[in-house]
Amino acid sequence: MNNFIKRTLTGIIFVGILLGGIFYNAYSFAVLFCIITGLALWEFYGLLKHYENAALHRLISTFGGMYLFVACFLKAGGIADNLTFLPYILFLMYVFIYELYTKAVNPINNWAFTLLAQIYCAGLFSLLNFIAVQPAQLTHEPIYTPLFVLAIFVFVWLNDTGAFLVGSMIGRRKLFERISPKKSWEGFWGGLVIVLIASQGFAWYVPEISRLQWLGLATTIVIFATWGDLTESLLKRTLGVKDSGNMLPGHGGILDRFDSVLMASPAAFCYIELFIRN
Amino acid sequence: MNNFIKRTLTGIIFVGILLGGIFYNAYSFAVLFCIITGLALWEFYGLLKHYENAALHRLISTFGGMYLFVACFLKAGGIADNLTFLPYILFLMYVFIYELYTKAVNPINNWAFTLLAQIYCAGLFSLLNFIAVQPAQLTHEPIYTPLFVLAIFVFVWLNDTGAFLVGSMIGRRKLFERISPKKSWEGFWGGLVIVLIASQGFAWYVPEISRLQWLGLATTIVIFATWGDLTESLLKRTLGVKDSGNMLPGHGGILDRFDSVLMASPAAFCYIELFIRN
User: Fold this and answer.
1) Interacting residues of B276 by C-beta distance below 8 A, sequence separation 6+
2) Residues 6 or more apart from A196 whose CB is under 8 A from it?
3) What is the pLDDT of residue A138?
4) Chain B residue numbers touching A96 (CB-CB < 8 A)
5) Rounded to two decimals, what is the model's pTM?
């Protein structure tokens, strides 16, 4: 299959699965992002050089992060109990104790890399739950509002597209040449303007949240999505790889597709808690 | 001052401050262990080779972990609100974004080491709050029960002493020669027996918790304290240092004093939630 068709098909399926999972209900949201968390972790552990751990440990650590996502979902939905986070605490202790028995050359690196991935892929991403899910009021079903999750993805995609188009046309001043030589300040501003305009579409559909609040959320997401993209570029540049993986044919790896969202989600969470829900 | 007197004096002051902070009230507990968390983090960041970060970043990361401890105290006491953990989430994003601007040779290591210390020193230790503090029922004061925190320290100290005495007298079979050549299985069993006996003293004073529950808690603490000690030994052995620092004259560093407690606390938390409070 030629590369353009492969890219387009993968892109359509990817967007379809994401939107389907976000819109269907709280549980499809949880399952979808739990799987994405797992794929991101697995890919991250594969990327790291000098990560000496065995496949079983990599698998356990991947499941550990997926469990954290599920535990945060339960917590956000008000259906967690005292024991919900216990398996994750046991997992963290396991990570430390495990290295006593591996005879690895550098156990400190193994601890540090295992836990870096937990925070980068699972910890930050788990905050999506607290954006989307609120404790049940009358029933046992958590209250699910996909609005802001949708906004994060739409804003990130529009920002990527806008920055690429404007940057290609009039990009001159480099944004961050050392880490991502193709990005320009013109592209950044172009992406921002497009997302600001799109945010007013959201304001039109969801008037309970003011136009100004939407502008603030859009700006927050664009800034942190850009930082998220640069963070993953720095990671890949340090490791000397071009793509984080090849899970999505023509689009690179999972982390390549979610790098912006990984940083935009916690930032959006902070913004929403501070300026919208507070 | 000769070394024996220095060691003894430091030991008495150390134990006095700890017991005073644990017994006085919830806030002295929080302040004491928040400071210990900070000292442990500062020491940990100093220990790591190839940790390229500037003193200001080390200071911010230390305060980040101390803030996590305070946030967990507020959460455990039921006096946290939606914004309590926000500063820590901002701190985590700062850790990632910071490396974009440092031109460090290996930003991945800096991320990983910064976050390893957060989990090892601040994250695991913060669980002490959930052992000691419960949400307020009628007043705004959190309910503070120092009992189990005291038990952790008393059991760890008795285990250290018992293992040393029994091990010195009849120690033959090595417990973990590669990592800690002086420890013996005889010492381990000796420490365990002494702690099991001491736990029955606690059971006598606190009959609401059964003798069997105390035996289980004592066994859990001894096993994980030993693993905690070995974990820190592995850390020091990998770095080629003898002591983690020199904050406590004659006793080494903060991590040397708290290595067992760092692992015994989360294990005790899990045991208490599973078998005592459940």
Assistant:
1) B209, B213, B217
2) A215, A218, A219
3) 74
4) 120, 227, 231, 263
5) 0.95
